[in-house]
Amino acid sequence: MKKNLLVALVLVMSMTLFAACGKSNNNNSASSSAPASEKASEPASSDSGSAAESDLGGKITFVTTRTDMKNDGTLDKYAAKFKEKYPKAEFEWVAITDYAQEIKVRLTTGEAGDVSFLDSSLPLNELPNYYEPLPDSLFEDAYFPDIKAWDGKRYGIATGVNTQGIVYNKSAFKAAGIDKVPATLDELYAAAEKLKAANIVPLYMNVGAMWPITNWGENGVWYVAGQGNFFDQFVTDDAPYKMDNAWGTLLSIGREFVKRGYTEKDLATNNWEMSKGEVATGKAGMYFLGNWVIPQLIGAGANSEDIGFFPLPYDNKGGSYNVPRGPDYFIGVSKDSKNKELAIKWAEFFVKESGYTDAGGYLPVYKSQSSNNPQLAEFDTFKPNYIESLASDPKFNEIANKAEIDLYGGKYIQKILTSKDMQAEFDALNAKWKKAKASLGY
Fold first, then answer.
1. Out of 11, 159, 196, 246, which residue is the most buried by the measure of CB atoms under 10 Å away?
2. Which element (helix H / strand E) includes 334?
């Protein structure tokens, strides 16, 4: 299931906060059509709509990360519920595992469907090239209304709100003799050592899958720094990657986990789907991911009461740690859609009425709503300091793209985590950054 997953987070995944990701369920792109005759198991949550609305029809192609929801029929159920208001609507699902990379190609080739999750790395000033403006009414009371806005128009609405931390298996902790949640970085390392001694993978990092490890980079550094607009400063800085800033802090921790053998042994293969079963059954103890992965672990066989959630203790000061309040993938309507009115109605329904936010384990998109997720309740007992992501200067992503630094893809982070010399990797990235910035005249 999937995954990330914020814009320059901030523009946000994952990450793909959270990284996340959206989160995938297989290794192949897939598509299917929702049966026209299928009916939802529950009634629509709003009125039937006007006669004019009910006359809207045609085929909507939805390009998404959610291979799991395509495969288990959830998207078909959403479509059936939508068809109670728009009986003439038909659907095709295109569900992609390697979404961060493939959506870039699809946008340029005109194959991004009618509705899609936005490319997190796309500079804001390029949004009008690919997406249709959305109505202002969709953003009333919503978090992050302007993160995907350009020139006074909004092109994407968040599909969920994420935070991020350590998702852990309580049974694995108990089996390893860990009797309290780590409150400092040293305590986190100590817990990992106990898990390792008990033949439990301490932290499944998913280095081979790549997108999950963006949490050790752009999907995490901004909130560790305590700055929702952390990336803006680097538009005028020739060297973003420094050992003494948040990039150095998080990546050093990630490297320490790899160095000490506190991660999965196979750092080359994409074992994302397998890893969920490992954490769900207690064969692995922890993830460093967002709240969105919790229902996926339960779907993989974990009992809800066995799964916990606490903020990442990224230093030894203790107390309250910064955590993000950031958007998951944004949803938007393709500029090339031949059925824009119906596509906008689907995007609105998906966020407001489908049940996707709850099913994905997200915090609500709308401020007036609240979550009843027990893991999020546990998370809040640690009194984390929520840092809200802000719209980033589009020049940041523009420079990164020019420098061929794969933000939200994870390839360069994979190299840093496993390299012998972190400073040398930083120097190489900074050289590319400086050259790209100069060539763009920034």
1. 11
2. strand 330-334
